[in-house]
Design a protein that fits this description.
The chain has no helices and 8 strands. With 144 residues, it is mostly beta strands.
Length: 144
Amino acid sequence: HEGAFTPGNGWQEVRFTTPVKGRYFCLEALSPQANDNIAAIAEFDVLGADGKPVSREHWKIRYADSEETDAANNIATNVFDLQESTFWHTNYSSSKPAFPHQIVIDLGEDKVITGFSYLPRAEAGKTGMIKDYKVYLKMQPFKI
């Protein structure tokens, strides 16, 4: 699935046209809302067969192409820590890698997925707002 998030704060929900079964969920941020090379996600949910968020109890980060750990603790697991004030943020203090940015979540078991919800950083005008994206869902781990 691919699309574009609208600019601004608040939860954004994406529904797939058909349910997909998988265990490994990859969000690939293709471009930013602003002119920077940074991606950030405050919270993230995967929607199950019933359209409601699936349990995050067994989630693990399988891969994140970048994390800001030099100037802050903006690690990838922040996307599912149930704290909207913490977030995953790609590195901005040293390497500043360019888009695209990827984050892969192991959902812990096979799930029927009907979509996802994304919450950008809460602060208006801050870096990291994602514009264009693609999502991938697989039964087997991605080759990284």
